[in-house]
Amino acid sequence: MSLCSGIRADGGRCRAQAIRDNEYCISHHPDYADARRRRNSKGGKRGGRGRPIAELGALRDENSDIRRRLLEGELLPNVAAVAIQSINTDVRCVGATLKAKEQEELIERLEALEEGLAQSRSARGYSA
């Protein structure tokens, strides 16, 4: 397969493989400009997957502090129990948020694949 003829932003030549029977890779092909623009407009706005590791770490630290304070007699057991229940709710919310974001990412990937398949079929002369 041949290399892409596109020029990178730094002025160097793109080293990606070109699309079959074409001189450009998917990142430089003019027919994919709209799809690239849509993908690029999301850059930096999503925050990865919501940084669940950091959120869960903070909740774990809070749980540890409550346990320490309970064992040292600073907190009554009923107060500690309510605080732990609240932390458990937060943990479930983080998990639900993560699942929702993963589902959104999968839907976007599926839509992109379906769009690519449709373009590939139309390029080959197949009707849907």
Model description:
- The structure is a single chain.
- The chain is mostly helical and 128 residues long.
- It folds into two domains: 1-41, no CATH class; 49-124, no CATH class.
- Helix content is 60%, strand content 0%.
- It has helices at residues 33-41, 52-71, 77-124.
- The longest helix has 48 residues, at 77-124.
- The model has no long low-confidence stretch (mean pLDDT 84).
Task: Please give the structural blueprint.
Blueprint: H1 33-41, H2 52-71, H3 77-124
Helix pairs in contact: 2-3
In short:
This protein has 128 residues and is mostly helical. Helices cover 60% and strands 0% of the residues. The radius of gyration is 25 Å and the shape is elongated.
Q: What is the domain total for the residues? A: 2
Total beta strands: 0
Q: Overall mean pLDDT score?
A: 84
Q: Structural class, from helix and strand content?
A: mainly alpha
Q: What's the helix-strand series?
A: HHH
Report helical residue fraction: 55-70%
Oligomeric state of shown chains: single chain
Distance between the termini: 29 Å
In DSSP terms (H or I, runs of 4 or more residues), the helix count works out at 3
**Biggest sheet, in brief?**
none
**Which of globular, elongated, flat, extended, rod-shaped describes the shape?**
elongated
From the alpha-carbon coordinates, what is the Rg to the nearest angstrom? 25 Å
